[in-house]
Amino acid sequence: MATPGRQFFDEHMAYIYAGNLDGMIDDQYREDAVLISPFDILDTPPPHIVRGREALKAFFHKYIEWQGSINVESLYDFAETEDAISFQAIFTSRTGKWVVGDAWSLKDRMIAYHFSFAHKIG
Predict the structure, then answer these.
(1) What is the mean pLDDT of each run of 10 residues along the chain (122 residues)?
(2) By CB neighbour count within 10 A (0-12 exposed, 13-18 middle, 19+ buried), where does 81 fall?
(3) Could you tell me which of 2, 21, 26, 3 has the C-alpha nearest to residue 84?
(4) Contact, 20 vs 68, CB < 8 A?
């Protein structure tokens, strides 16, 4: 039986695999959510601070367009409390192999702050 945090993570990934990024943002992120991302996909250098659902949608669409499909090879160090989820993973995509980490601060079971960490392997 999956824990509430693991269910939330699995739903998050299902949205990504289905290409339903707008649904993911609407259903899992607060209206005023903040993402801090290390991925170099915008016109300014990272880290990027992205605020609000509309900006998050634009960012995630650009991110997935850049990465292509994501294949999670390993999920580890998964931890959760009633108001936070954190994990590390190794995934491959069109851009290569990555070690990533995310920390989601939740309010009312929606992401309020999303901290992202990453480095490319090889």
Answers:
(1) 94 96 98 97 94 98 96 97 97 97 98 97 90
(2) exposed
(3) 3
(4) no
